TrEMBL record:
Keywords of the record: Calcium, Hydrolase, Metal-binding, Protease, Serine protease, Signal, Zymogen
Subcellular location: Secreted, Extracellular space
Protein name, per record: tripeptidyl-peptidase II
Organism (species): Melanomma pulvis-pyrius CBS 109.77
The organism's place on the tree of life at top rank: Eukaryota
GO MF annotation terms: metal ion binding; serine-type endopeptidase activity; tripeptidyl-peptidase activity
Coiled-coil stretches noted in the UniProt entry, renumbered to this chain: none
Function: Secreted tripeptidyl-peptidase which degrades proteins at acidic pHs and is involved in virulence.
Principal location listed in the UniProt entry: secreted
EC number(s) stated in the UniProt entry for this protein: 3.4.14.10
Record keyword Cell inner membrane present: no
Family annotation (Gene3D superfamilies): Peptidase S8/S53 domain
Length: 600
């Protein structure tokens, strides 16, 4: 993943005031015992190949990150909504002079004198042949190959630095971090909607849902959403109005995609023609990160276009005419960073439907990435991640040591984790249930199982501690510490519908299930709330979780049915209150809007 701030070219030459490199004792800074699943070590790396090396410097005040973030995100704080500028963020977390000088002197001793700054001055960048990098880090580089895709990846098993340097750096890349494209959350349903009678009926006509059709000739009702979800279904289910026709230029929502997956403009227009005619011709603003680029070839290939089409078709249909930003991430580590997270703060909401399992990353890597999300929250950006689709098995049905697999970055305490629900197939009067304030949904139980559980790395944050402890006390799961870490950051935080989404790919409608669908939906709700606040001269809502948890009784419909099986178990079960399947439950948009509008 690439979450660095723009480059500031500063070439530095330093003199050595430390012992000669050959006299310095090295200590292991990071290591891994195994490569991620389905990656096989093939051969030593060509020693002449040049690596784009990045050294992440230790930053000041990261231990106070939650304290700082809570001060601008907790509704009981006098500083709620007083988000920081990027200059304040840089100043607060900048590495100390001692750290910079110590690392630069170490590099100088190895003949590395031209170093440029990246990442708000907390990352040092330079290019180095493999042979020299191996000497610098006392390691060996290998080429790994993915067993299925054949993709190649360069990595080592461990790396070491002088003992006096280890306290001054977070991570060095490329080393043992798998920064390849993470996994997509969301799956195509078998067949197309033509295989379902109700879908075929509306295949050529706009599927505009009313609360309840007066007669069969009035068109589809919310009851029909059992078989086919559209934007109007979601508006009916969650009490979402049409977006304001007056866009706010500071209110862009951002969708994150990875190379190898990109939307097709023609499919956007086909979808909009039926479900949001005003948006026909609208396109997201492209922000390229690390060589991110669009690929419009093979428009009917769901694996290439399905994810991006899903995310953009729904987020744009629900929020239009609010600006939409597409952050397209490539795999070119030599990118100059001109499109990187400086642009994130030009948006107020970032939605990502991709991730990996914690066991595929190192603790230092997860901490480094998670802290960047904390900084985005300080700047008023809401960061949302989907929780994956294999239940307690995380991103894929591959449970190491038969242990539940928490999903990263979902487990980062500075992001909002979104799970998935579905309409209860036994519901015979959805409109009546909604009118009575009831819950017509259960945990998703299609081929997708909503990811949920507890982090093995991040500790439980204060904002969710009381509800999680209530769950563990009142609805204790039948598993011990060999399966999950009861003291870890718990997820999801919230859930919304993720089943049977109508998506246009290659000009044809098909169905998609997954937390990949639920995440941009909730992100769209937050974007509309920001629009209302910004229209009144208030700030964006920023980091959501302190409000979501502390005001849960004001807007949540609890989900008490369903589970998320995986790893050879039934997983966790939904229960009254928060649970590790559907989180707090599903939101009522109008009530959630009232909550945020009540906070000055």
């Amino acid at each position: 993943m690439h979450f660095l701030l723009p480059v500031f070219a500063t070439f530095i030459a330093v003199s050595s005031a430390l012992p000669a490199a050959s006299q310095q004792s090295h200590v292991v800074h990071e290591k891994r015992d195994r490569a991620p699943a389905k990656w096989t070590k093939r051969s030593r790396m060509d020693p002449s190949h040049v690596l784009p090396v990045r050294v992440g410097l230790a930053q000041r005040n990261l231990d106070r990150g939650m304290e700082f973030l809570d001060s601008v995100s907790n509704p009981s704080s006098k500083d709620y909504g007083k988000h920081w500028s990027i200059e304040e963020v840089r100043k607060t977390f900048a590495p100390s002079d001692e750290t910079r000088e110590s690392v630069l002197q170490w590099l100088s001793q190895h003949g590395i004198s031209s170093v440029r700054d990246e990442g708000a001055l907390h990352t040092l960048a330079f290019d180095l042949p493999v042979a020299d990098a191996e000497k610098l880090l006392n390691t060996k580089y290998y080429v790994y190959e993915h067993d299925e895709s054949g993709d190649a990846h360069v990595a080592c098993d461990s790396y070491s630095v002088p003992e006096h340097i280890t306290k001054h750096i977070n991570i060095v890349t490329p080393t043992l971090h798998w920064e390849t494209k993470p996994y997509r959350h969301g799956v195509k349903r078998d067949g197309t909607f033509e295989s379902h009678p109700i879908h075929k009926e509306f295949e050529e006509d706009a599927f505009v849902v009313t609360a309840e059709a007066e007669s069969p000739d009035d068109g589809p009702s919310v009851q029909d959403c059992l078989g086919k979800i559209t934007p109007s279904c979601l508006r009916a289910l969650y009490n979402i109005p049409e977006a304001s026709t007056t866009p706010c230029p500071n209110n862009s929502i951002a969708i994150v995609e990875y190379n190898g997956n990109s939307y097709t403009p023609e499919d956007l227009d086909t979808f909009f023609t039926t479900y949001q005619p005003a948006a026909v011709g609208a396109r997201p603003i492209l922000t390229s990160v690390a060589g991110g680029a669009l690929d419009n070839t093979n428009p009917a290939d769901f694996n290439t276009h399905g994810e991006s089409n899903l995310d953009l078709q729904y987020a744009m249909a629900l929020t239009f005419p609010q600006p939409m930003t597409l952050i397209q991430i490539g795999n070119d580590p030599t990118s100059d960073g001109s499109g990187e997270p400086e642009n994130y703060i030009q948006t107020k909401v970032v939605s990502t439907s991709w991730g990996s399992n914690e066991n595929e990353q190192t603790p230092a890597y997860m901490d480094t990435v998670c802290n960047e999300y904390m900084k985005l929250g300080l700047q008023g950006v809401s960061v949302l991640f989907s929780t994956a689709d294999f239940g307690v098995a995380g991103n894929k049905d591959d449970c190491m040591n038969n242990r539940f697999q928490p999903n990263f970055p979902t487990t980062c305490p500075y992001v909002t984790a979104v799970g998935a629900t579905q309409l209860d197939d036994t519901q015979t009067d959805i409109a009546g249930t909604l009118a009575a304030g009831g819950q017509p949904e259960v945990a998703i139980n299609s081929g997708v199982k909503s990811g949920g559980g507890f982090s093995d790395h991040f500790a439980i944050p204060d904002y969710q501690n009381d509800v999680v402890q209530a769950y563990l006390t009142n609805s204790p799961p039948p598993y011990g510490p060999d399966k999950f870490n009861a003291g870890g950051r718990a997820f999801p935080d919230i859930a919304v519908n993720g089943r049977s989404y109508t998506v246009v790919t290659g000009g044809a409608e098909g169905g998609v299930d997954g937390t990949s669908a639920s995440t941009p939906l909730f992100a769209s709700m937050i974007t509309m709330i920001n629009q209302e606040r910004l229209a009144q001269g208030r700030g964006s809502v920023g980091f959501l979780n302190p409000v979501l948890y502390s005001r849960r009784d004001d807007y949540i419909k609890d989900v008490v049915s369903g589970n998320n099986p995986g790893c050879g178990t039934d997983g966790f079960s939904a229960a009254p209150g928060w649970d590790p399947v559907t989180g707090l439950g599903t939101p009522d948009y109008q009530k959630l809007l009232a909550v945020f509008m009540s906070i000055l």
